[in-house]
Amino acid sequence: MNQTIKTTLLFILLILGSKLGICQNTISSKGNVITKDAENLMGIISFDPNDEITSIVYEDLNGNKKTFTTDDLLGIRLNDGSYFVQQPKIKSGIFVQKLFEGKLSVYKSKNQYILFDYYENLIFLNPNSGESAKRENYNTLFTITSGLCKIEKNFPYRKFKMNDKTLISIFREQHDCDNEKYTTYNKQTIDVDYSAAIGTMFQTSPILESRLRASSNHSISPMIQVGGRFKSAKPQYKKISLDISILWNQFNSEVIVIEENSTNTISSKEKTKIHALNIPLTVNYSFAPSATLQPYIGLGLMPSVHVGKSENGVVSSLERSNQYETLSAADIASVSGFTFSPVLKLGVVINNNIMVESILGHTPNFQRLISYSDSSKFSRQFFTFSLGYKF
How far apart, in whole angstroms, are the C-alpha atoms of residue 282 and residue 280? Predict the structure, then answer.
């Protein structure tokens, strides 16, 4: 009885799934169809991308549906930039996706990528998965794009993938290098490289107060940094990037202040443990890149959040007339909870994945001597050195 109920329920679910489109691979997207009369019709377009597209279902803005075949349309354009056309050299009677058009062109039908070389010859890439097919396709691509540009340095084998984005990037780079016109049939995207690094931060906070003899220690602390580098997919902007990172470090700050008047000598000393969360934001420019070295320089701003905990703060007051000394606990200096620092970044990427980087910065109003109300805040200078890996 239980098995009968299960079978009945499964049958019902299959029927519902077919009615609702759950078990189908059909996609629906807003876009427009281009008729043989060059008329653009806006609406919703549905088809199965995993099969040869011989027809599509078009639904206009009023909800009216109509089926179009290759005899009716010149092309189909979806809102994500995808473009489908007829290409008789590949196969008549179907719509194939056009990814790139230039001196070299790229089409796609189901999972098969088809290239047109400089002489309009068709090259079918291996549609199979696995290292053997990947290596075959990699060699094919960089054979037909070979020349003075040597663009494979930007697309090493370890980063190569058989997908729309990678193929478009390769041919876009080639045409930009050769100053050839091209058209891509997808929305421009932002490429992101992620990285992680460890290193050290060196910082110093000089106290420039003529009335006081004051000093603050230099400190060297370990740091951890993770972040992302955002770049435009357009080759003409490939030297420009935006870095957004999160940098954490912990360090000790020690402040010593001596003040003298006509009767007393007042000495203050405090050690503070500080946890800092920093977010360096820089716009970078890469220059003179080679196959192994890609140096860059960046300018930006680093917001920081600081949490300080006093380890021991003490004030000693010595009466010089009788050498009587009193000691008392006190907070000497406070750390600003939130600061902004202008920063300069210098770095180099080695072999496309090893990152060596340094950040130099200045933090105004970093600390304040709270025991001396008429004293101004003082700043901090710092620089970092890190070694990281780009994913």
Answer: 6
Give every CB contact of residue 338 below 8 A, 6+ residues apart in sequence.
303, 304, 305, 306
Contact 306, 276 (CB under 8 A): yes
* Predicted local confidence at residue 352, as pLDDT: 79
DSSP state of 103: S
Instruction: Determine the Cα–Cα distance for residues 138 and 173; give it in Å rounded to an integer.
Output: 15
Helices of type H across the chain: 2-20, 131-144, 164-177
Mean pLDDT of the chain: 83
pTM of the model: 0.66
Q: Where are the beta strands (DSSP E) in 176-292?
A: 183-184, 190-204, 213-216, 219-232, 240-260, 264-278, 281-286
Mean pLDDT across the stretch 136-150? 83
| Alpha carbon distance 375, 372 (integer Å) | 6
Pair of tokens at residue 265: 């000598």
Closest CA to 251 of 216, 183, 201: 201
- Would strands 73-78 and 65-69 be described as parallel, antiparallel, or unpaired? unpaired
CA 186 to chain centre: 20
Closest CA to 260 of 214, 322, 215, 216: 214
Task: Quick: pLDDT tens for 37-82.
Answer: 888 899 999 988 778 889 999 998 888 999 999 899 999 999 888 9
Query: Do 251 and 274 form a contact (C-beta atoms < 8 A)?
Result: yes
As beta bridge partners, residue 357 has 347, 386
Cβ atoms of 245 and 279 closer than 8 Å: yes
Which value, in Å, is the radius of gyration of the alpha carbons in the chain? 33
Whole-number Cα distances in Å, 19 to 15, 23, 24: 6, 9, 10
Strand partners, 102: none
8 Å CB contact between 283 and 299: yes
User: Is 314 a residue whose pLDDT tops 90?
Assistant: no
